[in-house]
């Protein structure tokens, strides 16, 4: 894995055989401008200085690493949490949204367009738009609008226009379709700020680079706390931005086992899960190549997760490559395991996690019982304020 970040992706945006840019020529011209703009400013002193200032004084970075004493005692292991739930807006998403908005400002764009599932990316982008004085349009499936009402209100309060998506399954995949269509109508004045390490080049690379701050901080903090590297690192994976953020710091550490936790949902039946790595095959979706859940015609299959931010039929191309290289172990957590982790972390540690993050916590609890002498660093990618109405209405408050 030497010179990993210099070699991945390559000049055409490929991580091994995955990634790239499979979009219409006119749109490719605009994407090339974004790529050139990113490479021009991302290494400049002014850009780096402004981004660092934003992270420190606006976002509240660095976020801490926390030893979950009661959860560790209960499971018999040693569980640590990277507290991205304490990042401004309540999740890791602002890490790349402020970077994307800063890039949009440099390119002279007037409007930020994006999709959102759980609403965290939408809130983060609406926050970035307000910060930089830009217009913001967020596309969100009707199913997710109903599930994530608090985040819908937050987006509107921040000045964003929320576009309900009413076709298909009315969730994240359709929201991406809708946002892409809106972007194609005016790529000159707008920019599509993709919410994960997915989409055509350069977005998988850009989002990963902006999220690397999570791993850089976590690695230093964990070593300062323990004097060693974690034995295991885990994070939930939908598109995979929070996971790539923390994984990036440990890819070259041979003694660290890395786990990406996918949503196994209700069952292994089609439409009951979004376990892309377990059941998917390589193919094209939304302008890039990755493992995805598709039928014999190459069309995306219906997906489901209790966590709105994970119900996507594709996954980041870098994750796809890391799966093939067997550098990351892709595992799963069911809805029931996710809910158990949600309630347990809330009661044992006083931390209400996002349902997305609860998948990673669920796996960590299981792994701690299997390997009680090993340390586990979990990326707690978001807080659960957005989920509490949905949880209480559907599952109650468990004793």
Report what the structure shows.
By secondary structure, the protein is α/β, with parallel strands linked by helices. It folds into 2 domains: 16-55 and 93-204, Rossmann fold (3-Layer(aba) Sandwich), CATH 3.40.50.1100; 60-91 and 211-395, Rossmann fold, CATH 3.40.50.1100. It is 45% helix and 18% strand. The protein has 16 helices and 14 strands. It has helices at residues 4-7, 25-41, 45-59, 69-75, 94-106, 120-132, 142-147, 149-157, 172-185, 203-226, 241-247, 276-279, 317-324, 335-349, 355-370, 388-395; strands spanning 14-15, 18-19, 65-67, 78-83, 111-116, 135-141, 161-165, 190-192, 232-236, 257-265, 281-285, 288-292, 329-334, 375-380. A 6-stranded mixed sheet has the order 3-4-14-9-10-13, with helices on both faces. It is globular, with a radius of gyration of 19 Å. The mean pLDDT is 96.
Short description:
The protein has 399 residues and is of the alpha/beta class.
Task: Please state the CA-atom Rg, rounded to the nearest Å.
Answer: 19 Å
The major β-sheet equals: 6 strands, mixed
Strand content: 15-25%
Annotated CATH architecture of the largest domain: 3-Layer(aba) Sandwich
User: How much helix is in the residues?
Assistant: 40-55%
Strand order of the largest sheet: 3-4-14-9-10-13
| Overall 3D shape | globular
What number is the mean pLDDT? Answer: 96
CATH topology of the largest domain: Rossmann fold
- In N-to-C order, the SSE pattern is HEEHHEHEHEHEHHEHEHEHEHEEHEHHEH
Computed structural class: alpha/beta
